[in-house]
Amino acid sequence: MTAKEIPNLRELLGPRRGGLSRDRGRGRGGPGSPREGAEALKDNAVRGTDQDAAGSRASCVELGYLHDPYAKLFATQTTTRRLPLLNRGTYVRTSAIDLLVDKFLNTSPDTPKQIVSLGAGTDTRYFRLRDRYPETRIVYHELDFPTNTAAKLASIQRHAQLHEKLTSKPPPNPLTLDQTATSYFSETYNLHAIDLRSLTSTTDNVTIPSLPNLDPTLPTLILSEMCLVYLKAATVSSILQTFLEKYLPSPTPVSLILYEPILPNDAFGRTMISNLSTRNIHLPTLLAYPDLGDQRARLRSYGFVDGARAADTEWIWKEWVTEEEKERVGALEMLDELEELEMLLRHYCVAWGWRDGGGEGVFTKAWDDVAERR
Amino acid sequence: MSIGGSDLDKAISQLRACRPIPENQVRELCYKARELLIEEGNVVGVDAPVTICGDIHGQFHDLMELFRVGGDVPDTNYLFMGDFVDRGFYSLESFLLLLCLKVRHPDRITLIRGNHESRQITTVYGFYDECLRKYGSANVWRYCCEVFDYLALGALVTGAATSLPPTSAPLADNANPDSFPSDDSEIEVETLNAQGEIMYRYARNSDSQSSNPTSNPASSSPIAPTPSRTGAAGTGATSSANGSKSNDTGAVLCVHGGLSPLIDTIDKIRLLDRKQEVPHEGAMCDLLWSDPDEIDGWGLSPRGAGFLFGADIVKCFNHRNDLSLIARAHQLVMEGFKEMFDSTIVTVWSAPNYCYRCGNVAAILELGEDGSNAGFVRRSNGERGGGGGGWILGSNVDGNGNRRLSSVLGEGALGQRARDGPGRRYRVFEAAPQDSRGMPAKKPVADYFL
Ligand SMILES: [Mn+2]
């Protein structure tokens, strides 16, 4: 495949930057163990891919698919133009999640809100939201593996446009970061260097890690874009139990948005699994929740009892995106890989569920009119 | 140096081993190819028997598998409907090999242009980068693009038989012989697997099958694709209402994409000035970019170029031009081929596991030779290859030799029954085995946007 396409592939690994490292477990196979060499190689590959996720976003921005002035600040390499199919996919995924997030933030805009982004990597959503909702009090948390949080902080420090947004305090901004910092905490932006699997709660006696500034009472949206998919289904379940019962106990309104692949059992899905497994990438929740119905049931089982919806991204492109916007996006590039795009989009879904008591609950109000694929 | 004779054979064997040939040989080859192609009309005339192939997209090892399944050049007469380059790792080797074969056996292989045979598209989808990577400069890409400009826009296959001769091919394990037509019925469609075993067989008859051209359940199995056509034979196309003989088949138009609202006759294709980069709009663009769709009339294409066209457009065009079938490529179909609109148009896709990711099977379409075709003058030097790959209809078939190279305008009212389609033998094959791909140290990795 072309030089241009290789980064696209790596983009796949981008979100894994948390995934593989998490799988690895920081305690397992200590220094010098035979595991370490191979794992270190994997880690290097993973680190090398982190930039490509940012590059893909930058490609989308450069071509006009997305408006995101921050994307290029996290991409240290020059922007490589991605295939139209991947640009379109990135567009659908980003705008779908933006829509749900917007509806959440626009519901009772005077109420403070909290967002927890799992495996956030180089995601720019926090910075975009600060621009879009200057009046709304947002407490934003990103959780990722230390190599990624450190890289992110380094990027932030390089660019005034980024670090001036880290607190809501007026300038002069007192931000100075230690060169070796992996975490950052403020009243509005928090970057937690953490292995997500340390959030599993097996017994009540185990003390869970503290997540500074995580408010246990604010309505909270948890985001997982290709993050939890790399963990075992039981691990994911346990992590969400920790959030729903310990960090954000009832009656705090909590919701979860998942972006994950689906349909592992058709020809495309089987090929995806086999292609990825030759690269040592496994997607346990893809097998555990193969279709949209499974995704909804899964959300309910976590405790999102007031709503559990799901739609594949092909359907989202058709149903959520206005005709006008479709025309705009369609005109950006000649897209030859149409059948392939549709197939690819059909194999990814957005699933969203919430617990807010229903009725006047913030998520019920925000998302009640958002259609899902029936 | 000049590339010809033994040099050409040497280049062919080097390319068959998936090794690029030197830049000066490419220049020479492209020059020779252009000399040949400039003589071809926009619509090349091709006599059956012929094996029609769809997109290749640089999947060199799968192209070798195609030749294994369909027979080698010149034994088999081939027609490739474009999109030789882009996406796969070996666009260069695939295209140059096809071009060498064209120069070596000009009457046994026909190449027409796909929408990827374009400067603009190849810079986005990989061929340009591949040339740069393999030669260190864009020269070879430039030579190839000059050839692209001379490729024909379509081909018209004449002399195809209406039915398939009975074969003694073995049945595939998963075939259901009970569903096969009886021995004395006329066979219209047969699907064979890569081992040459029969998977499906359909008779031409008027009412035994229900017509449901849209039902094409996406097969989840790449091994045993669901037949994409479900009862084209049930469309009444073969009723003898107007007394036509059953082997009275019209010509088959082959084009990469499809039809254009600016083109209502094949003669209008002939009038286009094709020797240029594929334009962003207009008839030439449409022929390479359009897609059939379940709509009425014309629609906007979501690809941003070309149009969508419905069954009414195809039936009207076929009738007006005395065609029995349009064969086109351009769209990935998981089962390798897909017949639509009462078998008046078929998509043939020849890149298995497209982009090493899609999990699809590929197909080629064989059209047999009408018994009456023997006396027809071949379009060029008249040299006939071994013919081993084709199949000859039995002498009992009463060919009427009624060829329709010119379009028939205004003959009969619309709604008059369509011409009988040619007998169609599809050979379905999977991607070449992993270990025979001879992949470079870096294994191919499919894209997943995540
Ligand atoms: Mn095409």
UniProtKB/TrEMBL annotation, chain A:
One of its GO terms (biological process) is methylation. Residues 1-53 are annotated as: Disordered. It holds the Pfam family LCM. Its EC number is 2.1.1.233. The keyword Transferase applies. It comes from the Eukaryota. Belongs to the methyltransferase superfamily. LCMT family. Methylates the carboxyl group of the C-terminal leucine residue of protein phosphatase 2A catalytic subunits to form alpha-leucine ester residues. This is Leucine carboxyl methyltransferase 1. It comes from Lophiostoma macrostomum CBS 122681. The lineage of its organism: Eukaryota, Fungi, Dikarya, Ascomycota, Pezizomycotina.
TrEMBL record, chain B:
Residues 208-244 have a biased composition (Low complexity). InterPro entries: Calcineurin-like_PHP, Metallo-depent_PP-like, PPA2-like, Ser/Thr-sp_prot-phosphatase. Residues 205-245 are annotated as: Disordered. One of its GO terms (molecular function) is metal ion binding. CDD domains: MPP_PP2A_PP4_PP6. The keyword Cytoplasm does not apply. Its EC number is 3.1.3.16. Belongs to the PPP phosphatase family. This is Serine/threonine-protein phosphatase. The lineage of its organism: Eukaryota, Fungi, Dikarya, Ascomycota, Pezizomycotina.
